[in-house]
Amino acid sequence: MPQPLLAQKPLAGYPDAMTKDTNMPTNTDPVALTAALVRCPSVTPIEGGALVLLDKLLSDAGFDCTRVDRGGVCNLYARWGRKGANRTFGFNGHTDVVPLGDEAAWTMPPFGAEIKDGFLYGRGSTDMKSGVAAFAAAAIDFVQNSPPDGAVVLAITGDEEGVALDGTVALLDWMDANNEAMSVCLVGEPTCPDVMGEAMKIGRRGSLTAWITVTGVQGHSAYPHRAKNPLHAGVRLLDRLAAFEMDQGTDHFDPSSLAVVTIDTGNPATNVIPARMTAAVNIRFNDQHSGASVTTWLQAEADKIMAETSVTVSMEIKISGESFITPPGDLSDLIAGAVKAETGRSPELSTSGGTSDARFVKNHCPVVEFGLVGRTMHQVDERVAVDQIGQLKAIYLRILTNYFA
Predict the structure, then answer these.
(1) Residue 357: helix, strand or coil by DSSP?
(2) Rounded CA separation 101/243 (Å)
(3) Which residues are catalytic?
(4) I need a labelling partner for 31 at 20 to 30 A (CA). Which of 266, 275, 354, 393 fits?
């Protein structure tokens, strides 16, 4: 069941986070909105009331809101301005959060949104309810205080931390079917390693996971010639994969990498050669490769091992995303300029880290990511510096102002 808009206890300034006097400028409080969102227990793929809250807030501010739910996942599309406008600035983000882990290890209530020593605590406070709150607050204030010649879109999903098949992908499919479009998009994920304003993402490496099964012949360990040991063959394969230098990096990307993440035989006996070994590798690849080319390389190495050892090697491969880059230009300059104006720092143009929903948005329009410091995301006692939330809203507001200037 969706939670009420003010789950648990209210926070000063919310839901009256927007000034009600129509003669006064709109001033939406992003800290109060972050707290209200954190209090929604939206562990993926549960909606938890977060999108219900945003739907009401944005609708009240004059946005046309549409729920784009698919496959049991809740998503929200909100547009201010004319459909098909010549210029449409889009924001993308998510309200779903990862599980709590060991709840007993939390020193603050994980859905309490309590503030202590300048930090707001709670699951999703960093990744990325503060980002959603900041761009929602910036968008509301911008369109109400200085209505632009164009449109502002917020595409918010409840399926980024999960399998991500019915989240941003569903929103983009719906947009395509309904002639909705963004000219450019900013994804509000945390991008700064340590200091606010130090980095933005202009691309991401691709990600591929291969589950490898090596099948031989079971036998007695004292008579190895009568068996066909899948571990010897499998370990040889994994060693070759891990030792291979895929590339030396590119102008915007670090070298591609492969990590062996699991090996298993399910064999408790020391006098038995098992019949099967399973393993998995995760590969993060740059723009010198594609999911298809990496798959071809993996299969070629598997074929060599089968020819050398007579075992059978099968693979199940999942490509989570292809590598991509938004070349430095107008969009990255726009964002970097706003960051510099608000923080005094010129952000590094980075492609590091894992995957994000920018990997889907890049097929729709140019996309760049910028958000706050992400040091505690997914951790116990996840927290966000309160002053960073307001600073992030100011950056987003400046980006909108400069984009439509």
Answers:
(1) coil
(2) 34
(3) 96, 160
(4) 354
